[in-house]
Design a protein that fits this description.
Elements: H1 2-15, E1 25-28, E2 30-37, H2 42-54, E3 59-65, E4 70-75, H3 82-95, E5 98-110, E6 113-117, E7 124-127, H4 136-143
Antiparallel strand pairs: 1-7, 2-4, 2-5, 3-4, 5-6
Length: about 140
């Protein structure tokens, strides 16, 4: 009985804490795209590049299209330098990838749509996803 109580207490301390619902707000004011040469597969190449870019600070979203060898992503150009992202991609997989045809444009919100803007500093606030730990105490309460 004592062992069960210790295990339940330890489980409660480890798993019952729930994270607060804090949404990370990213000011997406630029969108870039480039061609990536050297990708050989969709899962190990394209998905890894997409995940690496998406996890970079200041990047809101990223999509890598394996068939067209392109990457497109929205980001905050005050937080993230495009040259750092290009350098990061080119250093992946023992410098197997090369980036070409880099295109960057500022984006702004006009009537709810994202559009290209040349000298306009208007930007769009996008929120990231959140994660909440399960409530183990509630789980044990339902079992008993």
């Amino acid at each position: 009985m004592k062992n069960i109580l210790i295990i339940l207490t330890a489980s409660l301390l480890l798993f019952a804490c729930s994270s607060e619902n804090t949404e990370q707000e990213i000011l997406a004011n630029a969108q870039s795209s480039f061609v990536i040469e050297g990708m050989t597969c969709e899962e190990m190449c394209a998905k890894r590049i997409e995940d690496k870019i998406a996890r970079t600070a200041g990047v809101k979203e990223c999509t890598v299209d394996f068939e067209n060898n392109t990457a497109t992503f929205s980001y905050d150009n005050k937080t993230t330098e495009i040259n750092d992202i290009v350098s990061m991609v080119e250093k992946m997989a023992d410098s197997k990838y090369s980036v070409k045809e880099l295109k960057t444009e500022k984006i702004s919100v006009a009537n709810g749509d994202i559009s290209s803007a040349e000298n306009n500093e208007t930007s769009q606030i996008l929120s990231g996803s959140s994660f909440e730990m399960p409530n183990v105490l509630e789980y044990f309460r339902n079992i008993i």
